[in-house]
């Protein structure tokens, strides 16, 4: 394979990597994009994540050119990456959820446990709270955190990465060009994830069924919950991979993990938050 073809194929595989639900990209992009609750924040989530991912891929491509690829592509490394990604996700989710869940005491003994209680009792608390305080109390996941996630997630490997690091990178004609396959693979992924982030972030606004505050709350709570519980899932799967149990799966481990994430984490988190907001609305009315 010529260096030119290696770079072109790496870019095309990067596009496919972004399109296909990949365990190293979609769960994190979804969590932050939905947390921002608008298309602009979704674009940022996809851009920041994939920018860090691209830098990391370029570095690993160079390392692979220097014949360290077999070590980096070992199942043990993948299991460690799952665990580290899971820890980072859960920590980020816990921080977000903690900002939206806290104890606040009043001088006369009354206290409320969370943002929902504050919103449900705006009229009662009018002597103690300004409504603007309640409306600004929802804290979505800071989108810049995706830079950290993107760099860590870049160490995970699948079929596309095998091509980049074992075929494309060694095909480069010079050590000075060894980074190019990883760079173009990351750029292809970036193009798709920016679009995916926009769709996730803007999706709730298209329905016109919720107020601005409700959209912010649905986004922040869903984003925090998917990061927290999704991180736990990744940590468990990391242990499974390190023990070699993933070899018993009937399908590719990446697709299995993304399926679990959507079925037992993302969709339930969204539905639960949706019901929570509707219940809060009914109580107010």
Describe this structure in words.
The protein is mainly α and 285 residues long. It folds into two domains: 3-94 and 142-284, no CATH class; 101-137, no CATH class. It is 73% helix and 3% strand. It contains eleven helices and two strands. It has helices at 3-19, 26-36, 39-72, 75-99, 115-120, 131-135, 146-153, 159-168, 180-207, 212-242, 253-284, and strands at 101-105, 111-114. It has a two-stranded antiparallel sheet. It is globular, with a radius of gyration of 21 Å. The termini are far apart. Mean pLDDT is 78; it is low at 102-136.
List the topology elements.
Elements: H1 3-19, H2 26-36, H3 39-72, H4 75-99, E1 101-105, E2 111-114, H5 115-120, H6 131-135, H7 146-153, H8 159-168, H9 180-207, H10 212-242, H11 253-284
Helix pairs in contact: 1-8, 1-9, 2-3, 2-9, 2-10, 3-7, 3-8, 3-9, 4-7, 4-10, 10-11
User: Which bin fits the share of residues in helices?
Assistant: over 70%
Poorly predicted sequence stretches spanning 5 or more consecutive residues: 102-136
Indicate the overall shape: globular
Largest sheet: 2 strands, antiparallel
Distance between the termini: 67 Å
Query: What is the chain-wise order of helices and strands?
Result: HHHHEEHHHHHHH
Compute the average pLDDT: 78
Widest beta sheet: strand line-up: 1-2
Structural class estimated from helices and strands = mainly alpha
Total tally of structural domains: 2
Number of strands: 2
Q: How many helices does DSSP assign?
A: 11
């Amino acid at each position: 394979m010529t260096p030119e073809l290696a770079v072109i194929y790496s870019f095309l595989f990067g596009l496919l990597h972004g399109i296909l639900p990949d365990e190293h990209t979609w769960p994190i992009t979804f969590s932050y994009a939905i947390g921002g609750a608008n298309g602009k924040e979704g674009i940022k989530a996809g851009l920041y994540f994939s920018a860090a991912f691209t830098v990391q891929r370029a570095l690993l491509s160079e390392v692979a050119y220097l014949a360290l690829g077999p070590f980096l592509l070992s199942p043990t490394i993948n299991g460690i990456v799952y665990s580290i990604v899971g820890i980072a996700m859960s920590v980020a989710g816990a921080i977000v959820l903690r900002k939206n869940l806290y104890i606040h005491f009043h001088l006369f003994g009354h206290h409320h446990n969370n943002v929902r209680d504050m919103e449900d009792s705006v009229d009662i608390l009018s002597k103690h709270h300004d409504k603007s305080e309640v409306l600004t109390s929802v804290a979505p996941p800071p989108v810049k955190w995706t830079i950290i996630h993107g760099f860590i997630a870049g160490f995970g490997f699948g079929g596309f990465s095998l091509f980049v690091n074992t075929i494309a990178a060694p095909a480069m004609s010079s050590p000075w060009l060894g980074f190019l396959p990883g760079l173009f693979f990351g750029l292809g992924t970036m193009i798709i994830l920016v679009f995916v982030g926009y769709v996730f972030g803007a999706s709730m606004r298209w329905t016109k069924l919720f107020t601005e505050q409700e959209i912010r709350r649905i986004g922040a709570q869903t984003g925090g919950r998917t990061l927290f519980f999704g991180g736990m899932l990744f940590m468990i799967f990391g242990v499974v991979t390190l023990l070699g149990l993933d070899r018993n799966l009937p399908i590719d481990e990446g697709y299995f993990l993304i399926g679990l994430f959507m079925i037992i984490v993302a969709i339930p988190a969204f539905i639960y938050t949706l019901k929570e907001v509707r219940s809060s609305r009914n109580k107010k009315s």
